Amino acid sequence: MLRRTALKLTLTGAVLLAARAPRFTWAAATSSGTLRVWSVAKGGYVMTDKVQKSPEEWRQQLTPEQYHVTREQGTERAYSGGYSNHHGDGIYRCICCGQDLFDSRTKFESGTGWPSYTEPVAAENIATAEDRSFFSVRTEVLCSRCDAHLGHVFPDGPKPSGLRYCMNSAALNFVARDRL
Ligand SMILES: [Zn+2]
Predict the structure, then answer these.
(1) CA–CA separation, 43 vs 178, rounded Å?
(2) Is the pLDDT of residue 147 over 80?
């Protein structure tokens, strides 16, 4: 009888732990504190603080479309964004917090109407989460510093990564390499 009670308690504990599992799988396991991320300008890792703002603060800083994409998991219409056909040499930063996200050297023509990259500047600069909206399972990509929604990553990209980071232009801010 005692053993059965103990087993029941253990199972309850496991269920509770599973329910409390963090939403983010990589860097953004915590919503506050410091992060170690890659800085392209410095050519190395730097420590930075997480950025947390209220919806009102984000609305003041962003255009309505930027807010919808980054803070409400929106998706801009294909070919509507400014970076799908953009070929400058530089870095694409987070529109919300300025973190380095993608290098133009990893950008490729995906033919989708959204800016596409084979990899982020460093794994630590992004976070990923499972997205079960629209009756499918996709991998959402977020900024690891401010949790901005950036887009999704798909396993049908070119070699060597084989990945296609399909981003929204509205979530990005391009900075030319000679202005870093
Ligand atoms: Zn950010």
Answers:
(1) 14
(2) yes
